[in-house]
Amino acid sequence: MSLPPGFLDELRTRLSLTSVVGRKVMWDMRKSNQAKGDMWAPCPFHQEKSASFHVDDRKGFYYCFGCHAKGDAISFVRETENVGFMEAVEILSREAGMTMPARDPQAQQKADKRSQLAEVMEQAVKFFRLQLNTGAAAEARTYLDRRGLDAAALERWEIGFAPDQWQGLWDHLKAKNVEDQLILDAGLAKPSNKGGKPYDTFRGRIIFPIRDARGRAIAFGGRAMDPNDNAKYLNSPETALFDKGRSLFNHGPARTAAGKGQPLIVAEGYMDVIALASYGFEAAVAPLGTAVTENQLQMLWRIAPEPIVALDGDTAGLRAAMRLIDLALPLLQAGQSLRFAIMPPGKDPDDLLRADGAPALQKLLDEAMPMVRLLWQRETEGKVFDSPERKAALDKTLRDKITQIKDPSIRSHYGQEIKDLRWQLFRPQRGAGPRSGGAGRRWTASPTALASTKASVLAAAADPGATDHLREAVVLAVLLTRPELIEPFESGLEQMRCSDPLHADLRDLMLRHMDLDAGALHTRISEALGPEPLENLMSQRHVAIVPCIRVPGDLDKARLTIAEELAKLQSTRGLDAEMAEAVEDLDGVADEGLTWRVSEAARAAEQARRSGQEDRAEYDVAENGAVLSRDERRRLHDLLGQISIEKPGRSSG
User: Fold this and answer.
1) Which pairs with CB-CB distance under 8 Å and at least 24 residues apart come from 601-605?
2) How far apart, in Å, are the Cα atoms of 10 and each of 83, 294, 340, 592?
3) Rounded to whole angstroms, how far apart are CA atoms 510 and 325?
4) Which of 61, 172, 327, 453 is the most exposed place for a label (fewest CB within 10 A)?
5) Element holding 375 (H helix, E strand)
6) What domain of life (predicted)?
7) What does DSSP say about strands 265-266 and 233-235: parallel, antiparallel, or unpaired?
């Protein structure tokens, strides 16, 4: 319907916004100035302790500096009462003493019909409650007592009983002159296919009234007493009053409790909500016989910015959580998300509370996982990522999920969190290197040289590990100046076995924050490790003279330097691996294939050394033609001395 010109202006003029809002908040009188209509309170739209919700009575607008909710009296009623625009106007008009303009006949008829249905539903509530005290409900009362519901709980939740009769409620309502069509349209009865009287929708069930945010009875839920009934729980059919995808059990009371600071908990069913409330968790709701819908999710976010989903710890509960993640990802906004408290296997919130009490549940709520962690768990739990293809499949799956997030800031933070989790899963183990034969073989990090000798090229001649240390430093220093190269060299950097724990820390931080520019990356590393590691690294003599660091700006030269140094590290450590494996494989006799492997590794090492003349180590020519450092030549000589070479084609021994 349309409103006459000036009606809304008159409505806003007559109303005091502080009186409308004051029904839902507690004003902070230390911060407020009542004389000027400048009022502050904790926000009713999100959980907070400080007063960041501001009402300007003179302008007729409110604004929250925390969640950024804003609007006038009409929008406030719409959000807090979960009603449409015209219903909000009607509520405020009655409060202001204004007469609503006459509706068009069709709209008026629809409104009248809804009012009539609401009255019929209230009569049904009273009927079911009376039936719970009859002899026919003895088994139902025993069940409720066993579930811990005392007389006060039965009264609070208006729990009733539908007798196991075909026309028990029908006859009761007809005796009160309720029209047949109203009973049918309220979903309380169904027409007979055999031409007889309509029959009751609920028979032989414990009844739970379902009320909307305004407190109107709009539907019922019924639990079957017959264990062989096909439907353990049954909800009213959808009607002009009831849309199950737009309704929540305990909506109104939960919203009030959440406004007072309690966490909003999303449970699976009526009994979970009732149990939660009885143990003090009053801001609890449940969807009605279906997975959470987009409309219900938006309703939850209007109550609290980060509801906690408390689902059963069984397979069905986890599947429901995963479906909810897929629904929520495209709808996420800054400060608006979900957390998940997964119950122990085989238990729901009701079971946990009765077995272990409120502290056990509170602990699970305090440890509730953010959505990104459950998403990661879904894609990684129970899976093995022992090949590049499997790792790539994981990356693709997670990338596809993250791209569903519309908010660019949230999408970026999700990406960073996934990178952190991925790094923790695949990170190189410190002191561990590539497996090269023996079961359980692990590399041990080289002892760290003193700071005064690390920068000296002479250390390379005395300690082969120092050469690797120098090369690691060059790789890290170049990447610190050109962090855009971290991602292209991500795989090689992950596989780089750092000889220095500090190098490993630097490498880990660079991989975790590869999306940052040089300045931001330096800041993040300094925050984590302090300024000294970066200063020491960049001031080392052999680092400072690297051309792409001494004269920055040449990206291609930087890329080539990193590639060469990583190749050198890989080849020299390949020689170490072959030597270590050869020693393990010796049992006094070996074939020439073993010697060939060692020699080939030596040749690869020498090729790397020849491309890195800056190391200045002393090299000699080995018997197999490879040029090795004196230390490597001695080790190789000792190793070959243990091997008796057999001619090709003959067995050894």
Assistant:
1) 601/571, 601/574, 601/575, 601/577, 602/575, 602/626, 602/628, 602/632, 602/636, 604/571, 604/574, 604/575, 605/571, 605/572, 605/574, 605/575, 605/632
2) 21, 36, 46, 101
3) 30
4) 453
5) helix 371-380
6) Bacteria
7) unpaired
- pTM of the full structure: 0.61
How many helices and strands in the chain, by DSSP H and E?
Answer: 30, 17
H runs (alpha helix) in 586-629: 592-610
Burial 65-74 (b: 16+ CB within 10 A, else e): ebbebeebbb
Q: What is the pLDDT of residues 221-263, one digit of tens each?
A: 999 999 999 899 999 999 999 999 999 999 989 988 887 789 9
Provide the residue ranges of all domains of the chain, joining segments of one domain with +: 7-96, 105-242, 243-381, 382-425, 451-635
Return d(Cα 164, Cα 183) in angstroms, integer.
Answer: 18
279 Ramachandran zone, left/alpha/beta (phi>0; psi -120 to 50): alpha
Strand partners, 206: 161, 223
Query: Between β-strands 53-56 and 38-41, what pairing exists: parallel, antiparallel or unpaired?
Result: antiparallel
Q: What is the pLDDT of residues 208-222, one digit of tens each?
A: 999 998 889 999 999
Query: Is the separation of the CB atoms in 468 and 496 below 8 Å?
Result: no
Query: What is the SS3 assignment for 180?
Result: helix
Class of domain 7-96: alpha beta
Residue 209 contacts residue 223 (beta carbons within 8 Å): no
Burial class, 151, CB count within 10 angstroms (exposed 0-12 / middle 13-18 / buried 19+): exposed
**Residue 85 CB contacts under 8 Å (≥ 6 apart), including other chains:** 74, 78
Q: What is the pLDDT of residues 15-70, one digit of tens each?
A: 889 989 998 899 998 999 888 889 999 998 877 778 999 999 888 899 998 888 89
Query: What is the CATH T-level fold of the domain 105-242, as seen in this structure?
Result: DNA primase DNAg catalytic core, N-terminal domain (3.90.980)
β-sheet bridge partners, residue 342: 311
CA 428 to chain CA centroid, Å, is 26
